[in-house]
Write a structure and sequence with these properties.
35% of the residues lie in helices and 23% in strands. The protein has helices at residues 2-7, 9-20, 29-45, 88-91, 106-126, 150-157, 205-217, 257-270, 296-311, 327-332, 359-374; strands spanning 49-53, 61-65, 74-79, 95-97, 100-102, 134-139, 162-165, 174-178, 180-189, 227-235, 245-254, 280-289, 318-321, 337-338, 345-346, 354-356. It starts with a helix and ends with a helix. It comes from Oceanobacillus halophilus. The active site is at residues 81, 142.
C-alpha cells in the first residue's frame, strides 16, 4: 500500500496546492464553499455520497459516506476553514522549499484533507472494504468553536464506536485530551465629563474595568489547569474625557467540566457589583467548548493506533493540548476519540505555517491502516 502513496505523492501535492490557494477563512463563505466543492467532487469520483448541510452566513458543512455503508462505526472529522482573511493567498500563495510546503492553512488543516482522501483511495485501490466503515464530517467553522456545526457533529458521532480527528500533528504525537474553554465579554458603562473642567461629574468606565481585569486574572489557577486571560480591552472617547464606556474580552480555558461550572459562577460574581460607584456592568458569553478528558475507551483506541504505528516503524506517543478542536465535542459526548492524526507541521495561524511534506505519505498510510484495524 505504501507504493500507492509514493506513486501518488505528486497528485497529493497538486491537490493540496489547489486547496491552499483558496482563501477559506471562517467568514469567507464563498471560499469555504469553494474548498467544499473541490472535495465533494473528489469524493464523488470514488463513489462516495456527499450530503450538503447549507448555512446562510458560514460555509456549508459536508457529511460523506459510501452508499454501501450501512452503519459505519468510524466518524472522521476535518475542518475546511482557516483563520486567515480574504486576500491572504494573493500575498503568500502555496510555495514549496525542499521538504517543506508553506501557505495559509497548509497544515491547519488542508493537508489533512489530502491524507484522508488518499487513505480512503488506497483502501478502494487495494480492494479492502474498510472504506465502507467510515463517515466523514467536513465542517466550516471549527476555527470559531464549531458554533454552527456542533449539533451536526454530535448527532453523527453519538452512535459511533470511534472518532478520528484529523488535526495536524506538530511533532508526530497523537492528542488524547484537550482543554475546553469559552469567551466572555464585559461591557462597562460610566459617564463622560471634561477631564480638566469638571472631572468630578464623570464616572470612569476605564477605572472600573481596570479593577475588574485584576480580579479576573486572580481567578486563574494555572497549577490546576484553569486559565483566565483578558486578551482585549478598549474604552474611552478621547484623552481629555472621562471614559463613558469600556470593554474587555476574556478567554477561559478549563481541564474539566466542573472547572467550567465553577469559573462561570466566579466570573459572574466578580461583575455582580461595581468598584467605581455609578458604573454599570454587563457580562455575556459562556463555555462553548467542553473539556475533553482522557477515558479508558479512548486510551484503548490510542493503544491500537500506537500498535499500527509500530508496524510502520513509527514511535507514537500521545499528549494533552491546550487548544481546542472538534475532538472536544466527540470526546465530551462519550465517543472514544483520538486527535492529531493529520500530517506533521507547525506554526499554525502564522505566516510561517508549514507542512513537512514526507509526512503526507507516512500519515496517509498510518490512517489507512488504522481504518482497517478498527474495521475488523
Amino acid at each position: 500500500m505504501k507504493n500507492f502513496f509514493q506513486q501518488n505523492e505528486s497528485h497529493m501535492l497538486q491537490l493540496l496546492e489547489k486547496l491552499v490557494n483558496m482563501d477559506s477563512g471562517t467568514y469567507v463563505k464563498h471560499g469555504v464553499d469553494q474548498v467544499g466543492a473541490v472535495l465533494r467532487e473528489e469524493y464523488e469520483k470514488i463513489g462516495f455520497q456527499v450530503e450538503i448541510h447549507e448555512q446562510e452566513t458560514l460555509g456549508n458543512n459536508l457529511v460523506i459516506r459510501h452508499p454501501d455503508a450501512k452503519e459505519p462505526s468510524i466518524v472522521m472529522l476535518a475542518h475546511m476553514d482557516t483563520v486567515f482573511p480574504e486576500g491572504t493567498v494573493a500575498k503568500r500563495p502555496f510555495t514549496r522549499k525542499g521538504d517543506y510546503a508553506y501557505g495559509p492553512g497548509v497544515i491547519d488543516m488542508k493537508a489533512s484533507h489530502i491524507t484522508t482522501l488518499f487513505a480512503i483511495k488506497s483502501l478502494i485501490e487495494s480492494g479492502n472494504e474498510a472504506f465502507k466503515n467510515v463517515q466523514l464530517i467536513l465542517n466550516s467553522d471549527e476555527e470559531i468553536g464549531s458554533i454552527g456545526s456542533r449539533q451536526l457533529i454530535e448527532e453523527v458521532a453519538k452512535n459511533k464506536k470511534y472518532a478520528l480527528i484529523l488535526e495536524p500533528a506538530q511533532n508526530g504525537n497523537l492528542v488524547s485530551q484537550r482543554k475546553g474553554g469559552g469567551k466572555y465579554f464585559l461591557k462597562v458603562t460610566g459617564k463622560s465629563a471634561h477631564a480638566g473642567v469638571e472631572p468630578e461629574n464623570g464616572i470612569s468606565a476605564i477605572e472600573e474595568l481596570s479593577s475588574k481585569v485584576l480580579k479576573l486574572h486572580k481567578l486563574a489557577r494555572r497549577e490546576e489547569g484553569l486559565f483566565v486571560n483578558v486578551g482585549l480591552v478598549k474604552g474611552g472617547t478621547s484623552i481629555n474625557t472621562i471614559a463613558p464606556s469600556a470593554e474587555a474580552a476574556i478567554d477561559v480555558r478549563i481541564d474539566t467540566e466542573q472547572q467550567g461550572i465553577a469559573i462561570d459562577k466566579a466570573l459572574k460574581e466578580v461583575v455582580r457589583t461595581s468598584d467605581v460607584e455609578g458604573t454599570k456592568l454587563e457580562l455575556t458569553g459562556k463555555i462553548t467548548r467542553p473539556a475533553w478528558e482522557l477515558t479508558e475507551e479512548s486510551g484503548h483506541l490510542i493503544s491500537m493506533i500506537v500498535e499500527e504505528g509500530e508496524k510502520l516503524g513509527l514511535s507514537l506517543d500521545h499528549e494533552k493540548s491546550g487548544g481546542g478542536s472538534d475532538g472536544n465535542l466527540t470526546g465530551y459526548i462519550g465517543t472514544p476519540t483520538v486527535d492529531g492524526l493529520g500530517p506533521i507541521g507547525g506554526n499554525a495561524h502564522q505566516e510561517s505555517e508549514y507542512l513537512y511534506i514526507p509526512s503526507l505519505v507516512e500519515r496517509s498510510l498510518l490512517l489507512a491502516n488504522v481504518i482497517k484495524r478498527l474495521s475488523t
